[in-house]
Specification:
Chains A, B, C, D: Belongs to the class-V pyridoxal-phosphate-dependent aminotransferase family. Chains A, B, C, D: This is alanine--glyoxylate transaminase. Chains A, B, C, D: GO terms for molecular function: alanine-glyoxylate transaminase activity; L-serine-pyruvate transaminase activity. The structure is a homotetramer. Chain A is α/β, with parallel strands linked by helices. The first copy, chain A, contains 13 helices and 14 strands. The first copy, chain A, has a seven-stranded mixed sheet, with helices on both faces. Chain A has a three-stranded antiparallel sheet with strand order 11-14-13. Chain A has a two-stranded parallel sheet with strand order 1-12. Chain A is globular. The two termini of chain A are 35 Å apart. At the A-B interface, helix 1, helix 3, helix 9 and strand 13 of A face helix 1, helix 3, helix 9 and strand 13 of B.
Chain lengths: 385, 385, 385, 385
């Protein structure tokens, strides 16, 4: 078994979340659970910085993304999908199922979307109704400027779908701040929660569009509408919620609010900054083309020439018990991913990451100056004092 | 908060399941989790009495039913849906989304399907390709003769979808025994597990039909196909499984196998038999028209004339802390449901149920001879000695 | 395994206590634990209705009683021990190890101490310095009038040791209210906590006496003095506290304060009252000679002539999964004990108790009108409306 | 709150232990618990490499040491206590309470006992009946040659008390291998268990001596005799065992047996070796005078001149969230202790320890070459390949 998991998710949950998971399972229609559910949803809204209760879908975030596409995108819609990585690109496949035309802006997967390009496209194609963008494209470890993109969309009256699955809770990103009409996130990444739920914020404009979409699913696990008012104690659940996952969500969100969001973001940022410093000091290359687009919640490292990513990950796991994530899709084999999410978003884990990565590379005959790497991590931590 | 929950589900999970829920969340692609997942699926197959690994869908059983309809039923298919209750009837709505024609046999919701009627219909309509039936129609507390129906279907080369959500694990019903081609069940009813997963057995014939169905979903949370081989450690998960729910499933199934299925069924049966005896001895009426179709896993009681079901349930909860389930759909207000599933499938809980139900009715001015009811429960327990 | 435990302790812990037990074990000298410990002790003081931080001894309550005797009783002391049951009598053995002379008032073990007898004895023997009394003598299910006795002791300037192990938290008994100088209780009875700790309130007068006693233990697990100031974060623990048990104590006390002590006592009292009514209505005899001395936290029932207590308990466990406690010492075989402590101090468990006891007796050929018993329980519950 | 605890105990418990702690609390006299207790004790005996069921005392290991002294040492006995550290020295205080004469061999607390000195003393004082020795004197991080000492004692027919509290489970030390007549250990150090119990092996010779000692306690929490046969399901517990702690002990021992003792010792040894290499490579000094007496379960580092130990520990905790132990007694302020016990007995934690210690020292203006330290840790890990 691994000793320390530094994956890009699912991540190690906080102990308080694990304890919440072991709460007795209760009958979902009992008033005590209905009130608990309401309280959890309202608390989640608070964490999202909004007064609108989010929809909690009873499955992991891909359900939220698939459901968002199905609900929001009508048969007459032109959708602009921004693809700066595997996840952003992937959303296009769901969008294409429902829309009249899918337009894309695509950049290399070690780069980020330029807001100007979005602005230009929206001018060129005034028929675009919906834009979709991934904030932190996890397989790349890069972030897109969703705040700027959201403002541009609003100016063009374009509805925006933002995938903030692996950034919300670890970075300062909130649906209303970034003008997101649908904002999908997860309890199991930066919130250090469990993996079986998905949080979907839907703006008033988005609900209006969904209500007007005859193809928006109902009577389906894919339905946003079915769950729209499920947070209200006087409304029946459309089907059984995942009781234990709700217990876990409650604990994860409470834990986040108790620690203080700013403090949580700060330790995610410091851990990532220290990790990047260590990686570079070892003589390795970050995957993103420039540091300003690196996520605070995962660090991606280019696989050194002559080595195989699987061998590096296996060696790190075998020697040190440290687990990293592989690349995905077209990036498989090109990079190694180090997660900084939830309980491991702590600078000491940057030491662990740099040592295990460098040690594994060195053991395989690569070049990695681990001593310099760890010194650089410590210097970055010093810099935060 | 309630003290004793005798709902028709979700039910109180076994303590060993609650402990399993608090296991550390692990990275799903780590080999240790992949092996754990395989082991859980194979163990679940064993509990189902089959060598075929079931598909585990990452949501509650309605996901499995919706997914089964979407995968199996093609645009040219004629489907025979058997409706002896709200759940059986409800499946027809999913079936109707996909089929050319939906045929139904419907009986009053306090009765069960007659296998002869099925046989007659299949003779009359040889174009029927698929039959769907709910074994225990939970809102009614009645069971359909799925074994006989399955044999008839096989004789007519008709594929069968069996909803065994609230019977498997508490009664002797297994996919291959009843000739089910798709058999959907839940960890959170008679297995006393958690609510966030669904177990779907798919026969070889059903897979062949699904493979031939161009509309069978892929790249979707609704897809059976995506998860078909996910149990194999060398196959990547299509999306993130609900790690904690898998931990819970493993514990629930292991607990079932450790206690011994026959012993588990026996205590479900005895609890239900004792409960029915107590209900009748109090002078109340069972909902089903005859006792031979009563489920071993829930007892439904007709609301006495002049009383309201909600008042009865509230009084039972307020006075005694005992929670029952309400009716659903067209049965709402007509009956009260007492669950006998998992940890509460123990005869002593028949005493609790009878006392709380009778006490509540008496407190509301109804007639219920609680003393006679409890004596009858004890006599039924004696009868099992 | 048993299904429902109605023992006189250890009792089933509340779920919140079980979750607290699973908190990570922390280094006892870390400031975070030292603060947690302080907070737990102060919260426990609050529950005791006093501003004096109690001593938490790291073992079950007999440790507290043995330690109290060793610390308080000096070689020149005359001690009056009140013996109305096995536990009260038993304290005399510890007292006798340390005192010059042990005086006892003993009554039959189905009766309680008369305060007048205490008053008379203290007048007759003005050299008595210390009195010891058990509030709820658990093996008998009887309570002594500790409030009256405490007042008499105070008037005679006699120090009082009160064993409130199985009454505090379920009845209105607090050290300063009853003039107790040492008051020993447990987290694992009415508080529904864990079994590994003991709570010892020590008055200022008692500390003065202990400080003056050269034989009071130090450097020992038996020492009250070693732990006197351990609650202060700036004082080192004399040895390692039971970290997980402290977690459990914190949860148990918080749970008690959250529910509200009056509400907790009320449900203990109602459960006991209903249970006694049911027992009598079945035609069985309570063990105590009169109902006014029956404890709210356990009901003791005389074994009917011709039956064996072990057979009754075994039959209740085998048929119904219900566990009762046996008698102890000289009372073994004469009575059966039904606990009403913590989570099972709920009237519905009086139904369970009466049914299982009566059913077992009837199954063994004895006479017990279970129907009448359950009706009487319900009537008692009605009476509380 | 700390992030990573590398204390010398209590240590972070294994997750499986935390889950076991959350098992329902059961009535201790129920047959199911009595069998569980027996099974736990026999499993513990297996881990100790003996067929003799150990005594489980219901408190932390100092209870075991105090109880051992009280039971074994009679008023006529001459006891030889070996003092190479605070804990060894401390046992002398308990021994002195009971013996006729206490003889000591004392060496500086950074050194270990020479078996020849023991041999010489036993020759010189043939009236010595009992020898006491601490295997790993935790405050010093040094180990005594208990195997050699035990053999010498046996040759002189001297009974031996061995304190193996912080070595058993992390090193190859077992009571019969080292001729220990009383062998005291803990679930909460190298076994990664909970803190509230103590394991005491007692040889047949020791029981004979105890039985012959009229002062051996009975009717006391200090009594070994009371608990001697408590493991037998047909013997009543003398007082209530700490139910949850027994659950935890069972899990900790099972976990140890499942992983395989040799594998567990190997990772303790490798972690310690790597840690020592890192400490030295940073330019710091180990506390023990020579590496051959360093424990596998804790590394002690001399506080560099000009720095304060408390400042170092606080800085490590504040910057990195890493907790170390302080010195104790006369060693307070002279050294910092790094634990390698249970779940943190993994080489990656030597990286964490070296980095946090070196980083803290450097931050305080001391000299510590962290880069070289981490490289040395990795080289040590490489050496184990």
């Amino acid at each position: 078994s691994p000793i320390i998991t530094l994956s890009a998710g699912p991540v190690d949950a906080y102990p308080v979340v694990l304890r919440a998971l072991s709460r007795p399972v209760t009958y979902d229609f009992d008033p005590s659970f209905q009130k608990f559910y309401e309280s959890t949803v309202l608390k989640t809204a608070e964490s999202l910085g909004t007064a609108r209760p989010p929809v909690i879908l009873q499955g992991e975030p891909v359900l939220g993304l698939e459901a968002a596409a199905a609900a929001l995108i009508g048969a007459d819609d032109v959708v602009l999908n921004l693809a700066s990585g595997e996840y952003g690109k992937g959303f296009g496949f769901w969008a294409a199922r429902h829309c009249r035309e899918l337009v894309e802006i695509e950049v290399p997967y070690d780069d980020a979307i330029d807001p100007e390009a979005v602005s230009d496209m929206l001018k060129a194609r005034p028929d675009i109704r919906i834009l979709s963008v991934c904030h932190h494209d996890t397989p790349s470890g890069t972030v897109n400027p969703v705040r700027e993109i959201g403002a541009i969309c609003r100016a063009h009256d374009v509805l925006t779908i933002v995938d903030a699955v692996s950034s919300f809770g670890g970075m300062d990103v909130h649906p209303e701040d970034v003008n997101a009409d649908i904002f999908v996130t997860s309890p199991s990444k930066c919130l250090g929660g469990s993996t079986g739920l998905c949080i979907v914020h839907v703006s008033e404009r988005a609900w209006a569009k969904i209500d007007a979409n005859p193809a928006a699913p109902t009577g389906s696990v894919l339905s946003l509408k079915d769950w729209r008012d499920a947070w209200r104690p006087d409304v029946l659940f459309p089907f059984t919620p995942s009781v234990s996952e709700i217990h876990a969500l409650d604990a994860a969100v409470q834990n986040y609010l108790d620690e203080g969001p700013e403090a949580v973001w700060a330790r995610h940022a410091l851990t990532a900054r220290a990790c990047r410093a260590g990686v570079r000091a070892m003589g390795l290359d970050l995957w993103p083309v420039r540091e300003s687009i690196c996520a605070d919640t995962a660090t991606t490292v280019r696989v050194p020439a002559g080595l195989e990513d699987a061998a590096i990950r296996q060696e790190a796991r075998r020697r040190y018990g440290v687990v990293f994530s592989a690349g995905r899709g077209s990036l498989l084999g090109k990079l190694v991913r180090i997660g900084h999410m939830g309980p491991v978003a702590r600078p000491i884990y940057a030491v662990v990451a740099v040592t295990a990565l460098g040690g594994a590379i060195a053991a395989l005959g690569g070049r990695a100056d681990v001593g310099a790497g760890v010194e650089a991590v410590l210097a970055a931590i010093d810099g935060a004092e």
